[in-house]
Structures are given as structure tokens and as C-alpha cells.
Amino acid sequence: MAIIVDHEKCNGCGICEELCPGDLMVVDPRTKKACIRSDPDCWNCMVCVKHCPIGALMLKLPYQIALYKATLEPKLGEDEIVWTLTDVDGKQEKYEIRRRTV
Fold it and tell me: At 36, is the secondary structure helix, strand, or coil?
């Protein structure tokens, strides 16, 4: 799986870099956009994707699971996370999961 950065949306805020537990997300000093240091080292916890305030990050699913171009994108709400699964044909399904209260 791979973290995909939408460079059109990314504003280089650095939240992904701050929150990544594997220290893999960085803001490229040349482009001022987020990028991942090493896809193979990412354990796909999706902390970066869930917390991106402008939705510039998504997870590309491997073809073994969902074929090329399939994505899984969460939107963090106050009480829920809405997961949008987009398949290879562009069909989307949404799953709403209530967030735990701590």
C-alpha cells in the first residue's frame, strides 16, 4: 500500500510529518509539499491520512486487494470517521464509523 499526496491540495502544513509514528512523512524543502521517505517502510497506520486538515493524503490499495487505482480515504469528523472506498471503476462506497470517546 502507498500513501498518495495530492500536490494540488497539499499546503505543506507539516501535520503529517509531526504525527507519523514511523518518521516517514516529511515536507520536501524544495516543493514545500508532503512526501513519504519510503513506501515499503510505511505500516499503513493512516495517522497522516486521517489527520490531514485539507484531505491531501489518501491510501492507494495494492492490486492484490483492490486492483490498480483503488483508494481508501478517511475523513475525520468530530464524532465519526467516514471512509470512502473508490474501486478501479471509480465506484465509491462510504462507511461511517463512530469515533471512540476517551
Answer: strand
Q: Tens digit of pLDDT for each residue in 43-74?
A: 888 899 989 999 899 877 665 565 667 777 88
Q: CA 55, 95, 61, 92 torsion: positive or negative?
A: negative
Contact 99, 79 (CB under 8 A): yes
Please tell me the distance from the alpha carbon of residue 10 to that of residue 56, in angstroms, as a whole number.
5
pLDDT one-digit tens code per residue, 9-37? 999 999 999 999 999 999 999 999 999 98
Output the CA–CA distances (angstroms, integers) from residue 86 to 33, 73, 77, in the order listed.
Answer: 24, 8, 19
Task: Confirm whether pTM is higher than 0.90.
Answer: no
User: CA–CA separation, 101 vs 58, rounded Å?
Assistant: 24
The matching CATH number, chosen from 3.30.70.20, 3.40.50.10490, 1.10.260.40, 3.40.50.11030, for 2-98 is 3.30.70.20
- Provide the pLDDT for residue 64: 56
